Amino acid sequence: MSHRKKAKENGDLEKDVIDFFIHESDARIVVMNPDFTIVEANLPYLEAVSKPKAGVLGAHCYELTHGLSAPCSISQPELGCPLLETLRTGKSAHVIHEHLFPDGRAVYCNMVTYPLKNPSGQVTRIIEMWRDITRELSHRVENRVKSLKADLQKLVQEDRMISLGKLVASSVHEINNPIQGLLTFSRLMETSLQEGKLTKKTMAEFKEHLALMSSELERIGKIVSGLLSFARQSEAGWNPVEVDDILDQVIHLTRHKMEIQNILFERKRSDMPLTINGDLHQLQQCFLNLVFNSIEAMPKGGSLFIRSDLDPFSGRVTVEFRDTGCGIPEEHLGHIYDPFFTTKEAGQGTGLGLSIVHGIVKAHQGDIQVNSRPGEGTTFVLSFPRAQEGELP
Ligand SMILES: Nc1ncnc2c1ncn2[C@@H]1O[C@H](COP(=O)(O)OP(=O)(O)OP(=O)(O)O)[C@@H](O)[C@H]1O
Ligand SMILES: [Mg+2]
């Protein structure tokens, strides 16, 4: 077979393959000249641009797909045209385009261009193929969001257990002290009973002792029930929650830890209900981590101020934690939300507290700001969107 005949046969075969590929594919395909005029288009493409074949052949691609009067590289360079890339390099190019509609809807297209070359290697035609991947992409994003939420839920649960350990450790003192008192009183009463001298005076003393004993027992009961309700594994979910109620629980759980450490506590609350949509356990853990950090920053005492409010300008719920602790050096500020960043001695901190706080705040469409001066103290301010009345969680 002559060389020319063989080349012709090869060319015919290539054309047949390309035709088959264009017309049998369910992707939208156009073939263009290097000046962007369309020479061939398949049915899915014609359907996507809502035009008959006659209205497409000879037209420029940028007119049809973007309604532009000049190539995208001039009118909308941010689109990043793969055609230009293929013309420039002579190689296949790929890009994902985002088409935004006036109603805010976004369509994502996966675009690939392939060059067709003449025997001397010049690009004579370009095949452009695009596929709408909006559904596939949103499905992937949804799955990623789901798995991130599951990861956060797991982390919060683990952090909850660590917090429980810290709370129990500080509660031991709080429970032990009244127990010593209870033992002393009960021994005193036992001795009086053994001596058999139940005078009016001893009866009055017994009454006093019993009143003290029951108030101490009540205190122990409260500590234990606070710990138990914190430890209980009830399913929390997304619900309207009152920020002040969660703060109260956290303060109740940590108050004795503050007392032991000579920390003066002050609280300012809003007179309005501060309802946000969120997960009670996560928010509790978030506030608890911030209070723990403040307490740990004041080993020799200090003061902690917690304020909850409704920001009159933004309409968001804000929570402020202000301590007079050691403060955070400027060079650390950029790392405090990094997992495992800690300045505490081994065994004192894992460095997960603030990364969990950050994750929880972001999951609640919230914002977190920190302001700190070494030697003076630290303030964390969180803000969350307020739940609208009648809004479904
Ligand atoms: N209120 C604060 N005052 C001073 N330093 C703080 C404060 N909050 C956080 N930090 C600094 O940020 C670091 C990271 O805090 P984070 O809560 O993530 O971890 P941690 O407290 O060290 O350990 P963990 O919380 O896991 O027990 C702390 O080690 C500390 O240096
Ligand atoms: Mg911490």
Q: What is the residue-mean pLDDT, rounded to a whole number? A: 85
Looking at the structure, the CATH topology of the largest domain is: Heat Shock Protein 90
How many β-strand runs?
12
Q: What can be said about the biggest beta sheet? A: 5 strands, antiparallel
- Helix tally equals 12
Which class of secondary structure composition applies to the elements? alpha+beta
Distance between the termini: 76 Å
- Output the helix-strand order: HEEHHHHHEEEHHEHEEHEEHHEE
Alpha carbon gyration radius = 35 Å
Structural overview:
By secondary structure, the chain is α+β, with helices and mostly antiparallel strands. Strand 3 and strand 4 form a beta hairpin. The radius of gyration is 35 Å and the shape is rod-shaped. The protein starts with a helix and ends in a 9-residue tail after the last strand.
Brief synopsis:
With 393 residues, this protein is α+β, with helices and mostly antiparallel strands. It is built from 12 helices and 12 strands. It has helices spanning 3-24, 43-49, 53-56, 61-66, 72-75, 82-89, 134-195, 200-231, 243-260, 280-296, 330-333, 353-363, and strands spanning 28-32, 38-41, 93-100, 106-117, 123-132, 238-242, 263-268, 275-279, 302-310, 317-323, 367-373, 377-384.
Task: Lay out the secondary structure.
Elements: H1 3-24, E1 28-32, E2 38-41, H2 43-49, H3 53-56, H4 61-66, H5 72-75, H6 82-89, E3 93-100, E4 106-117, E5 123-132, H7 134-195, H8 200-231, E6 238-242, H9 243-260, E7 263-268, E8 275-279, H10 280-296, E9 302-310, E10 317-323, H11 330-333, H12 353-363, E11 367-373, E12 377-384
Parallel strand pairs: 7-9
Antiparallel strand pairs: 1-2, 1-5, 3-4, 4-5, 6-8, 9-10, 10-12, 11-12
Helix pairs in contact: 7-8, 7-9, 7-10, 7-12, 9-10, 10-12
This protein binds adenosine-5'-triphosphate (ATP) and magnesium ion.
